[in-house]
Batch of 2 targets.
Target 1
Amino acid sequence: MSTELVPWVVDRLAALRMVPVVVIDDAAHADRLADALLDGGIACAEITLRTPAGLAAIRRLSHRGDILVGAGTIVNPDDVDAAVDAGAEFLVSPGFGIEVARRARARGVALLPGVATASELQAAVAAGISSVKLFPAEALGGIVMLDALGGPFPQARFMPSGGITLEKAGGYLDHPAVFAVGGSWIAPRAQIAAGDFRAITESAARTVAILEIGVSRVDRS
Ligand code: 3PG
């Protein structure tokens, strides 16, 4: 396989810098969730397939055009098809699987596979993927792990997630090999389920301000 597939998605994620990882229990909440994120200045979301509502939520958001929508928890080739059919513009996996990578390539969609070891990163790079998710970032040692993997794999670019808080996100974003950070603190599952979208907007706005990620409000007129 050749080099990076669908590089514009990685470029866009690199511009956005922060990817809210979302677990949604009711697809009817999807639009208000997107509004809440956008009102706080964040124009993307990774909707995980950990719940049955995930695909329907992706379907709703992919029609809007004002928010970049990805699918998370892609663990097999059927998930790739389901997420792409629902309109996901990028896919995120917790780990690396060659069948998932092959299906993503066949469907022409960007896949950010999870890596937790040098072996997994080596397999991803061999499959032509050098932009990956470092997962679970904090449990792996965080920045220290990024530095260690960056030695043998200078071409690798990372989206760390797993255990990252707002307090720690800035340190990751300062790392030259990090293009974006993922995390669930902006839109926690319980707040979405409770319909507390005001809290999500506040959290997004606080994240944008503290990380100085400079994402301006999206013009939705
Ligand atoms: C992920 O899938 O990226 C993580 O579950 C997000 O991790 P967090 O909930 O610790 O932010």
Target 2
Amino acid sequence: MAKLKKRSDIEKAVGKALRKQPIVDMHTHLYPPCFGTPVPHRAGKGGSATDPAGLFLWGLDELLTYHYLVAEVFRVVPAAGEGGMSYEQFWSLPKTAQADHIWKNLFVDRTPVSEACRGVLTSLDLLGLEVPKNKDLAKLRKWFAQQDPSKYIDKVMEISHVESITMTNEVFSDNERARWLKDPEKLRDPRFEAVLRIDPILCNWPAAAQKLNEWGYDAGDGKNLSDRNVDEARRFLAEWIDRQKAIYVALSLPPSFSYPAPEHDPVAQAGQVALEKVILPVCAERNLPFAMMIGSRRGVNPSLRDAADMGGLSDVSSVARLCNAFPQNKFFCTMLARENQHELAVAARKFGNLMIFGCWWFLNNPCLIEEITRMRFELLGTSMIPQHSDCRVLDQLLYKWEHSRAIIGKVLVDKYADVVATGWPLATHDIDADVNRLFRKNFRDFLAR
Ligand code: HDL
Ligand code: ZN
């Protein structure tokens, strides 16, 4: 097998490996059509009725009204003052009018250089769609309206090389829970895997306990957890893991999250009991990883709805203490602050039961993906999961993976060049094996470990 010596040969081999590598996307907010779609499709040609609360989001208007772009459009057309548009006005517009407003202000009247704007254009380009010179959206909308959603999912997965989409299934969302309780078998789609998302259990046990009581589980008064309450909460988790066939359990946490919980905070204390006596024992018993996504400061501007959140500096030592105290558990972890990334990578060097992943949310930008990925390779080699997409709209798989693949590939070439410079013999099959680890095998092996 030829050894790769020249940088140009390494670049070619990495490019080839990346182009053919199937990707398992370990964290998205995507759903298959069986969860309902608010976007009408193939009107009149056997298309099913739309479902306004449907969770399967796809197509141009959903792309343009992605919450990242909603936040950005309110920067150029402010919610108050002369020439502005209030939040209420915006949210009262039909989806296509919201999209037109975003298109005009972020794409037509100024160059779409932000990552979220550029992403829309990359997705259209990868679909072979040209933006008309007059930048009118009618023709593009017509093309999307002619797509058959399920076939379109196959098309997007084929172009993006994503072979499996991991969902985020929020059991505390009434819309989603009702769909699972109605007919879980109707929600199976082999292209998608489920993840049980349970933020309130750790972030707000009193509210979670109230819900569990309503749902028929004796979760207690929300302050203390008796042995029975613990058993009942474990039953709740186990039943939902089984109903969803969840491949891991996940939640997001605020920057203030700490383990152990602060003495003076009864809600955090109750959350800690739920973590130690309910979540981690059930995950260990089922051999499921527990994913902590830490640093989301929710609702700083509630009028922006899904775009309302920002990030903050979190405590990596709490993650280290959990990995140390629960060696029988497997932990996925990603953090939202750029400033946490180095310490989190160092923590991963200390604990084999900790798998760090992705450049989450406000880190999913080229300059930060490059910085974080370079640091992770240098500290962890290939024993990490460099990226997830966090897509909310199906078509985003196209741009999020196109952009990340290119950056991860660029860093990989540098790292290989450094290794080859020592005289190390590098062959294409080494590169293929590494790329497979990064984009699929590390995730699958960690689930199975
Ligand atoms: O909590 C999460 O899973 C985050 O990813 C949020 O959904 C966030 O709004 C998001 O979409 N980030 O990309
Ligand atoms: Zn997410």
